Amino acid sequence: MLSLDFIRQHPEVVSAGLKLRHDPQNIEELLRLVEQRKGLATRCEGLYVLLKRLNENVHTAPERKREELNKQIKAVSKDIRLLELQISNIETHMQPLLQALPNLPHNSVRDGGEHARNHTLSTWGNPLRFYFPQKAHWELSESLGLTDFEAGTRLAGSRFVVLKGMGARLERALISFMLDVHTREHGYTEILPPYLVKRSLMLGAGQLPKFEDQMYLCSEDELYLNPTAEVPLVGLHSDSILPAGMLPLRYVAWTSAFRREAGSAARQNRGLQRLHQFNKVELFQVVEPQSSYQVLEQMVTHAETILRQLELPYRVVELCASNLPFSAAKTLDLEVWMAGQQRYLEISSISNCEAFQGRRADIKYRPRQSARAEYVHTLNASGLAVGRTMAAILEAYQQADGTVIVPKALRPFMGVSVLKPE
Q1: 110 catalytic, yes or no?
Q2: How many domains does the chain contain in total?
Q3: pTM
Q4: CATH code at 354?
Q5: Catalytic site residue 346?
Q6: pLDDT tens sequence across 325-361
């Protein structure tokens, strides 16, 4: 969430940020309400000063004047209550306007123009040349008996899948491999959070109110299925002040993620690429503001490590302003090469949210003992999306006879070196 003081003092900066994002919202109504509240608050403060003086005078006033002073005290108290109700009503109207504003792009983020073009920063690995007709992963997984999309549809509807046999083992192997790398090599603390979270946490992480229609809600308890482990990880320290010396905090969590994905591109709906339920290993850091952009680069390398150890070619892409996630000030995507489809596909999104989530979830820290508390910076990254990683492996390691070689890094988890039809 943006600071109201910042919006009031720098409206031109906020408007420019929204324009760069190609966001049609304006802040005129919010600014009007801010000034209206400021005027009422000034009047209220003046009445409190008057009330204090009247209360002091009534104790020393002669008996004949006390009745009149008490009448004034009651009238001023009534005026204060009315003003406070008006202020509360204005704040109720301000809150959704404030919550609807996205984070402002960092000054290094580019304008992608009317075609929203992202910028490729680097590539790693060379896509292999195949000397036989390549298949997409959904064909390979079905022929190898790894997935059953028809069963998933029967059980829960379209865009759900049942993993079977070596398919289920490969998913489990990828999760274990990713968690081991991030905890043992990168120093993250593993977290296994609940799959359900409160509405307040969804608001704090920036998922609501903008993405309400994308969420699965248990309405009776007003609990939401996690769209990403980022939500409960933000919630771990909501409404708290972290003591000096506690930062940085590094968390890694594996959860199933649940998203309706309404309106997503049909081309990316096939197979394991865009499901309503999917597994994801999430990286999350809580840091001091001055270090957050160094940490962003660090988290990119942490996610890259998984792809490099699996020997999957990829590229690093800097998102333009109009493609930024709602809570992000800057985002870098890793896009893996899908050999069977001859295209790159996003497999990790790494974002610096700066103080946006810290302010929404009220997470502060003390730079030093007895120092004034400040808002933390938060960063998140997919480390990686498990289903898309499986899809990339199937397409990159496919053989002419329909089998798929298991990457060396996964063989200790799988117990086999080749996936064959069951």
Answers
A1: no
A2: 2
A3: 0.92
A4: 3.30.930.10
A5: yes
A6: 999 999 999 999 999 999 999 999 999 999 999 999 9
